[in-house]
Amino acid sequence: MVSRLKGQPALGGGDILLLSALGAWLSPGHLALTVVFASLAQAILMVVQKKSCMAFGPAIAVAAAAVAILGWHGLLPLS
Q1: Cα radius of gyration rounded to whole Å, the chain
Q2: What is residue 56's three-state secondary structure?
Q3: How much is the pLDDT for 24?
Q4: At what angle do helices 13-25 and 28-49 cross, to 10 degrees?
């Protein structure tokens, strides 16, 4: 959807590689939750910083770390 609105790719090649590597590490449910958390964090950062374009990789990495830590402690029972 963002690609059509902006006329440019929304995800770069590095984002795809990072998500595929996380897919080997996290469960499918946790990977989907990582994408949701990263998208929400990115949207909030873009509004707060008043930017129209930001790198998505750092948001993916932080969200994946949070999901992994919460998952290991049993707070996210997705499999």
Answers
A1: 13
A2: coil
A3: 93
A4: 140
